[in-house]
Amino acid sequence: MTARRPGFPAQLGPSAGAVPAARKVAAPAGRSAAAAPVRPQGLGLDSGAVRARMVQKLASQGVSDAQVLAAMGSVERHRFVDSALVNQAYEDTSLPIGLGQTISKPNVVARMAELLMGGARGQDGKLGRVLEIGTGCGYQAAVLSLLASEVYSIERLRGLHDKARDNLRAFRLANVHLLFGDGMAGYARGAPYAGIIAAAGGEAIPQAWVDQLAMGGRIIAPMVTAGGHQALVLLEKTPAKLKQTVLEAVHFVPLKSGIA
Ligand code: SAH
User: Fold this and answer.
1) Kind of pairing between the strands at 230-237 and 242-249
2) Is 244 left (phi over 0), alpha (psi -120 to 50) or beta?
3) For the domain that residue 131 is a member of, what is the CATH number?
4) Ligand 1 pocket: which residues have CB below 6 Å?
5) In tens digits, what is the pLDDT along the chain, a chain of 260 residues?
6) Is this model's pTM higher than 0.85 or not?
7) Residues 47, 94, 104, 153: which is the catalytic one?
8) CB contact at 8 A, 157 and 99
9) What's the DSSP call for residue 78?
10) Potential cystine with 233: which of 4, 95, 114, 223 (Cβ 3.0-4.6 Å)?
11) What number does the ligand 1 atom closest to the CA of 97 have?
12) What is the span of the domain harbouring residue 169?
């Protein structure tokens, strides 16, 4: 895999089969979920305490994976939302991120990460390569970067792909690879994945995701179920079968094809 420098955007062509080189968010550096330069923000120095309260709430809501809670406690969510929304960054609510899209509420991000972590993990307790469909503002990619060896995150809207790159640059997460393209086709060059997580819901799980999933891996995605409502779906790939479990109702933005 060749990493491209920021400024030379990776792009999945509209034509089938074209796959880009993933682009690293920043040069390899120490992994930290705290951004290096401190931008002036409404939350200032208190954000750690506010995040700790958010983590307590997540735990009281049933999130129990210690690594997930630690990741949620360390990624500065307020750096991913517009300055006017900074004071709501740690509330359990989804927030607009532009172009009609939303950042999922912390509880949903943590729940999905925890479900992903239920799959096969490496000796270090982390997941291997993970594919995220729907980078949005990049927040969930930052959380996943602390739970997985590599994160490939794909976004179909150029404006958000660029925003995520800007948001993530200061975090210097060398294992996050941002891709611009249609995530319905997955990203074959990073496959097989230990986990695939979608932040947008379609009518079905695309076959490409199933094909690109490693044995023992998990797909967590919102999907329209029989009743016409959206629910979180867990797919587990084992040598014997593909096991599908329909979980709780959710409200995600639609999974769309093509790029814009
Ligand atoms: N994980 C994101 C949530 C973003 S909302 C965050 O932390 O901010 C879901 C995103 O999925 C939107 O940005 C939307 O543009 C994107 N999306 C929808 N269909 C897609 C597709 N086929 N491929 C890639 N991204 C898609």
Assistant:
1) antiparallel
2) beta
3) 3.40.50.150
4) 97, 101-104, 133-134, 136-137, 139-140, 154-157, 160, 182-184, 199-200, 253, 255-257
5) 344 333 333 444 333 333 445 555 554 444 456 665 444 455 655 799 999 999 999 999 999 999 999 999 999 999 999 999 999 999 999 999 999 999 999 999 999 999 999 988 888 999 999 999 999 999 999 999 999 999 999 999 999 999 999 999 999 999 999 999 999 999 999 999 999 999 999 999 999 999 999 999 999 999 999 889 999 999 999 999 999 999 999 999 999 999 99
6) yes
7) 104
8) yes
9) G
10) 223
11) 8
12) 16-31+41-254
